[in-house]
Design brief:
The structure is a single chain. Helices cover 37% and strands 24% of the residues. The protein starts with a helix and ends with a strand.
């Protein structure tokens, strides 16, 4: 499969693993969400909302949240866990909202799948004057040796870098600001395996290749001196955040 075709296949792969995604993917730290939201924001768009991992944190702040997600499978999971949130089919390039509808557009774990040339002006269109675009990614912290080894196991030639260190935004937004938030999430060995299985480049593998990668992950968890026999594992993350104000 050619690179462009592979990337397209990965971008639309999540619906097939929506339940695994919901079960295994982490939420986002409060410090990151608070930094991304502009002061006084009331109406917020969670764009590329997936199963609602970020949506929960926005709703719990009493905000008026609308979630937009292209995958029917992901929307189904979101509607199941957050039945009180408005969930719409749409993409970053075609947002199903009126002009100036929201105070902030937040995009979690998804900006690397969009076409910035179309998504940036579309985000600007739905923002109120002076609104903010906020992007965030949960990145495994590879300063832990076992996490670095996990990455070596799962990063295949099909891996797509998410560009979280310097995401493309640009005009009509002002310069992007950056914040990294360090935190950790406790999960079990099965949760680590599910987390790997929820990655787009793993989902789209032939079944025999996927099974081989997951077997190597289980072997790491069973044999690493700091993990073997552990019922609970602390998985360290760095949440990379970028925010840009509408000029």
């Amino acid at each position: 499969m050619a690179g462009t075709e592979r990337r397209k296949a990965q971008a639309v792969s999540f619906g097939a693993a929506a339940a695994t995604y919901e079960r295994s993917r982490p939420s986002y730290p409060a410090e990151a969400i608070d930094w991304l939201l502009p002061s006084g924001a009331r109406r917020v768009l969670d764009l590329g909302a997936g199963t609602g991992k970020l949506t929960r944190g926005l709703r719990d702040r009493g905000l008026d949240v609308v979630a937009v997600e292209p995958s029917a499978g992901m929307r189904g999971q979101l509607a199941r866990v957050l039945p009180d949130v408005t969930v719409l089919a749409g993409t970053a390039e075609q947002i199903p909202l009126a002009d100036h509808a929201v105070d902030a557009v937040l995009v979690a774990q998804a900006w690397h799948w969009v076409d910035p040339a179309r998504a940036v002006p579309e985000a600007a269109r739905v923002l109120a004057p002076g609104g903010r675009l906020g992007l965030l990614w949960n990145i495994r912290d590879e300063r832990a040796d076992w996490v670095a080894e996990l990455t070596r196991i799962i990063h295949t030639p099909d891996y797509v870098d998410n560009g979280s260190t310097a995401p493309v935004i640009g005009p009509p937004f002002g310069p992007a600001e950056r914040l990294d938030v360090e935190w950790s999430r406790r999960t079990g060995p099965g949760g680590i395996v599910d987390l790997v299985a929820s990655r787009s480049y793993i989902i789209t593998m032939p079944p025999y290749e996927r099974a081989a990668v997951l077997a190597r992950v289980r072997h790491l968890l069973d044999t690493h001196p700091g993990l073997a026999g552990a019922a609970e594992i602390s998985l360290p993350y760095v949440t990379r955040c970028s925010r840009a104000q509408l000029a």
